């Protein structure tokens, strides 16, 4: 049966949903509204365009016209959905010609999230930027080309902050990172973060932790900090996190979860069964504990798109939950984590043990071996793995992938020594670091 399906928002969530619906449904009327000009683009690639690693801006974009033509979608860009009337199944939207209304059979919300940009006294918007979409990226690139800044203050030491420091450094800009926490990158535990901090300092990045921004002065070129000190910067990047875009959903009466994101069930349905939601705007449950989580990552958004469309077309495959596997690069170092870290486990009151292992990425006699650090957090009774972390210059991505897969398969630390992983001197050791990590964890439970 043909439906009128309206999708609000594109990128990894909405654009993916539109494409998947059309593959098996040639008859339904699909309209995708996006308040921006670009429906599909690589958010994760933007820092690398600014750093010159990605040389062509167009390589980050997917043509809206091509999407519309390929999948037979009525694509409305620069159009903002302003309200939902669930009772009458209609939406109100605003475009250049004014305000309009249209009806739907099924509504899919993929409004994403917005970069937080707190207001501070003295802030100059002409030299203070966020990085969350293509206009943000273009504004930063334009400022660097025209104003040729020599210094930059980065407020926040998460994904965007650390990726931007590397890429601004590549443009010859001296960077200072300011973060109110006692460590960079809260994704990992403090001991793992210390290795990232040492690497940043070795790259001549100024690191000011347990400090915060209080105000600006000098036309926005001076950042006054909470400890009374100040930082001079030609430009500032605000990388203090994101906020899910939930206003339209909340105003329409849809349930909002305790994380502040839209609450959905295992099939990505909101509290209204004819309205689905996915991506950076939704709250899902943790894969391991079932606790509510808001995790904004591209991989889970793609999986949620499959679950949503499968259910919309009569399937019943549930979303298993969020694992939160993430990895990032900062200069020559890679770092990643999967599952829960110590802070999250402590908050949940879970009894756990931890074990770490520092070793080389491959056989020490083979040239190029680099130091790596692996860590696993596991149940103090049965060895079930709650989280794993990895930091180093080489082989971090594959070790993180192994741990994420093992956790997804409900393996315990007792299974890690049993894993038969590929070995040759350029890649590993006969007893892979993952195996050794398992042996160490196993001995802790058996003693």
From TrEMBL:
<comment type="similarity">
    <text>Belongs to the class-III pyridine nucleotide-disulfide oxidoreductase family.</text>
</comment>
<dbReference type="InterPro" id="IPR004099">
    <property type="entry name" value="Pyr_nucl-diS_OxRdtase_dimer"/>
</dbReference>
<keyword id="KW-0285">Flavoprotein</keyword>
<keyword id="KW-0560">Oxidoreductase</keyword>
<feature type="domain" description="Pyridine nucleotide-disulphide oxidoreductase dimerisation">
    <location>
        <begin position="327"/>
        <end position="428"/>
    </location>
</feature>
<dbReference type="InterPro" id="IPR036188">
    <property type="entry name" value="FAD/NAD-bd_sf"/>
</dbReference>
<dbReference type="InterPro" id="IPR016156">
    <property type="entry name" value="FAD/NAD-linked_Rdtase_dimer_sf"/>
</dbReference>
<dbReference type="GO" id="GO:0016491">
    <property type="term" value="F:oxidoreductase activity"/>
</dbReference>
<dbReference type="Pfam" id="PF02852">
    <property type="entry name" value="Pyr_redox_dim"/>
</dbReference>
<dbReference type="Pfam" id="PF07992">
    <property type="entry name" value="Pyr_redox_2"/>
</dbReference>
<dbReference type="InterPro" id="IPR050260">
    <property type="entry name" value="FAD-bd_OxRdtase"/>
</dbReference>
<feature type="domain" description="FAD/NAD(P)-binding">
    <location>
        <begin position="4"/>
        <end position="299"/>
    </location>
</feature>
<keyword id="KW-0676">Redox-active center</keyword>
<dbReference type="InterPro" id="IPR023753">
    <property type="entry name" value="FAD/NAD-binding_dom"/>
</dbReference>
<keyword id="KW-0274">FAD</keyword>
<protein>
    <submittedName>
        <fullName>NADH dehydrogenase</fullName>
    </submittedName>
</protein>
């Amino acid at each position: 049966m043909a439906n009128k399906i309206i999708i609000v928002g594109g990128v990894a969530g909405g654009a993916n949903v539109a494409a998947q619906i059309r593959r098996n449904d040639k008859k339904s009327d699909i309209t995708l509204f996006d308040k921006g000009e670009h429906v599909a683009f690589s958010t994760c690639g933007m820092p690398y365009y600014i750093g010159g690693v990605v040389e062509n801006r167009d390589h980050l974009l997917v043509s809206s016209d091509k999407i519309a033509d390929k999948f037979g979608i009525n694509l409305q860009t620069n159009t903002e959905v302003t309200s939902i009337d669930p009772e009458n199944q209609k939406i109100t939207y605003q475009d250049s010609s004014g305000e309009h209304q249209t009806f739907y059979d099924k509504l899919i919300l993929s409004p994403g999230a917005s970069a937080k940009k707190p207001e501070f006294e003295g802030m100059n918007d002409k030299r203070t930027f966020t990085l969350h979409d293509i206009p943000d990226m273009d504004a930063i690139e334009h400022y660097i080309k025209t104003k040729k800044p020599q210094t930059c203050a980065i407020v926040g030491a998460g994904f965007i902050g650390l990726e931007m420091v590397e890429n601004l450094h590549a443009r010859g800009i001296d960077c200072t990172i300011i973060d109110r926490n006692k460590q960079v990158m809260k994704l990992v535990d403090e001991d793992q973060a210390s290795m990232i901090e040492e690497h940043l300092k070795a790259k001549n990045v100024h690191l000011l932790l347990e400090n915060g921004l209080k105000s600006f002065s000098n036309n926005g070129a001076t950042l006054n900090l909470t400890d009374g000190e100040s930082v001079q910067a030609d430009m500032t990047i605000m990388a203090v996190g994101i906020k899910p875009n939930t206003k339209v959903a909340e105003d329409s009466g849809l349930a909002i979860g305790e994380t502040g994101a839209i609450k959905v069930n295992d099939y990505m349905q909101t509290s209204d069964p004819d309205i689905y939601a996915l991506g950076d705007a939704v709250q899902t449950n943790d894969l391991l504990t079932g606790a509510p989580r808001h995790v904004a990552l591209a991989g889970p958004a793609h999986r949620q798109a499959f679950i949503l469309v499968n259910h919309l077309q009569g399937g019943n495959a549930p979303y298993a939950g969020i694992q939160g596997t993430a990895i990032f690069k900062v200069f020559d170092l890679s770092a990643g984590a999967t599952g829960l870290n110590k802070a999250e486990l402590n908050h949940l009151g879970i009894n756990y043990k931890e074990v770490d292992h520092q070793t080389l990425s491959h056989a020490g006699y083979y040239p190029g071996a680099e130091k790596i650090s692996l860590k696993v957090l596991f149940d103090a009774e049965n060895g079930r793995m709650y989280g794993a972390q990895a930091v180093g210059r080489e082989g971090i991505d594959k070790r993180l992938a192994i741990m994420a897969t093992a956790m997804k398969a409900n393996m315990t630390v007792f299974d890690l020594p049993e894993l038969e992983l590929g070995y040759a001197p350029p890649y590993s050791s006969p007893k892979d670091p993952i195996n050794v990590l398992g042996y160490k964890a196993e001995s802790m439970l058996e003693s």
